[in-house]
Amino acid sequence: MRKKKRNRIIIIVSAVIIVLLAFFAFRFSSSKQTSTKQTTITIGSIGPDVQVWQHIAKTSQAKKLGLKIKVKAFTDGPSLLRATSDGSINVSAFASWAYLQAYNQSKNNAGTQVALGTTYLEPMGIYSAKYKKLSQLPKGATIALANNAANEARGLLLLADAGLIKLKKNFNVASGSVNDVAANPKQFKFKLIDDTTGPRVIKSVDAVLIGNTIALSGGLNVLKDSLYHEKINQSTKNNINVLATAKKNKNNAAYKKLVGLYHNKQIQKWIAKKYSGTKVEVNKPISYLTD
């Protein structure tokens, strides 16, 4: 009798253990499936920023956020932003705030892009292979500027800040052009170029203005190699780079995670070391740019 009772207890306990094991196995399996579920995001970028996002894509921080990041390299800004607008690219990591605004103000792209968050400021620099000082630039020197509205305006503002030219009082920081030069004491000649070719034309002109993303791809360091470069202050906030996406995706939670991911301390440490501090982190809300 006792033996039968003992056997029943053993059977009951065994059944309970089996049920508990099955329960916890299910919970573990469900938890694992949830934690490994990922959202795939395709990011488009240009120059050294491609390497930045390729690095970020491999980090444990990206995995913890459930993000599977694919990176596609582009050679020019307009193509990248068009790809972002049509959805073949989810997020662009390239444009400055002014560049994005100029794109949105253009006839065929009115209001198609929105910024998700800020990333960094890379100072634009004035470079020359012929002269070591701004004061050495001769009368009638040829100076190359970007042929897109935002960077043409940005370059002219830098030349004005350097004391080389003066601009009209109503100069538009997003779309101003060489037609807005009010004073040109040394009668510089301005040559508009594709801004991605800056490092390649440096020997064929007297000076060229190059954004740091493109400068880095040409082996130039704005802090060491430029004759003059932008200072980090309130007046350059239009030049802060942003992550952007198509307007219809402005509330996409997964895309917004990219902003926090970029500003992760470990990732920032890697970027600072990789690019010698030339990508100055700016972790500000979009309202900082619009105010």
From TrEMBL:
GO terms for cellular component: membrane. It is a lipid-anchor. The chain crosses the membrane at residues 9-28. It is found in: Membrane. It comes from the Bacteria. Belongs to the NlpA lipoprotein family. This is Substrate binding protein. It comes from Lactobacillus equicursoris DSM 19284 = JCM 14600 = CIP 110162.
